[in-house]
Amino acid sequence: MAGQQRQESGCIPCFNCCVTVPQDKIYAVETFGSFTKVIGSGLNVVGCDVGGCCISFRSITKRVEQNDVFVETKTKDNVFVLVKVSVQQQVIPDQAESAMYKLANVSAQIDSYVSDVVRSCVPKMTLDDAFEEKDNISSAVNEALTKSMHEYGFQIIKALVTELKPSQDVMNSMNEINKQRRLRDAAMMAAEADKIRVVKKAEAECESARLQGEGIAKQREAIVDGLKRSVTSGTDEQLSSDKISELLLITQYFETLKEIGAKSGSNAVFIPHSPADGVRDISAQIRNGIMQGGAPGQMRM
C-alpha cells in the first residue's frame, strides 16, 4: 500500500535513545506521542528514553511507489469501459511530516482523485477517441494529482493510462467490424483484378483480330498478285478488277472444299454447279448456291 507507515524501535532493546535509519526510509521522532522532528539515514541519537515510553519512531519509505487504480466509466457513445491508471508517487523529504500525519490512507485518496478525473474526461470522448487520446487522459490525471497531493507531502512522478478495456461483447463487435471491412476491401480488389483481366483479354482479342485481318488482307493481296502474274505471264493482256475478283473467289472456293474434305466428320455444304459450265460462270453459281443452299449435310438437286 502506497504511503504505508510503520512503527520502529531503536538500536538498544527497550531503549529508543538511538536509532539506525535505512537509506530508503525517513523516520519521524515522537516524544510522548507528539511529533518532534524528522531524521535521515544513518545512526541518530535522539535523547534519553526508558523502556520505549518516552520516545517512539514512525517510518515512511522514500522509494517511488505505484498505485494501480481501476475506474469503470462510460464513453460518449454509451460504451462502458474499464480504465486502468498507474500512478507513481514519492514522498517529498522536506514535507515528510505532512506525508505521515495528514492522510490516513494515501491509496484511497489517490483512487478518489483519479476516479474523479477519469469520469470527467472519458464521457466526453467516443470509444475510438478514448483509445487515441490516452495521453491526454494521463496528462489530466497527472495535473490534478500534482496539485492536490503536493500539500500532503507527495510528488507525482507519472500517471499512465496503461489499459482501456471495453466489455468482451464490444471487443468482439469491433473485431467483426474490422473483419468485414477487410473482407469488403479484399472483394473490391478481387473485382478490380477481374475487371482488369477482362479488359486486357478484350484488348488482346481486339488486337489479335486486327492482326488477323491484316494478315488475311496481305494474304489475299499476295494471291491476287500471283494470279495476275500467272495469268498474264508472257502476254500483254491486262486483267480487269472483275476478273481478278472472280479468280480470287474461285481460288478461295476450291481451298475451302479442300479444307472441308481434309477434316473427318465435318459437315459438307454442297453448292449446285456443273463442271461443263465455263469457268467464268462459277462465281455466279457460287452466289446462287449460297442463296439456294439447304441445311448442312443435305444436297439439293
Automatic annotation (TrEMBL):
Stored Gene3D superfamilies: Band 7 domain
SUPFAM superfamilies on file: Band 7/SPFH domain (SSF117892)
Source domain of life: Eukaryota
Pfam family, one: Band_7
Domain Band: 16-178
PANTHER family hit by this protein: STOMATIN-LIKE PROTEIN 2, MITOCHONDRIAL
Protein name stated in the entry: Band 7 domain-containing protein
Origin organism lineage: Eukaryota, Sar, Alveolata, Dinophyceae, Prorocentrales
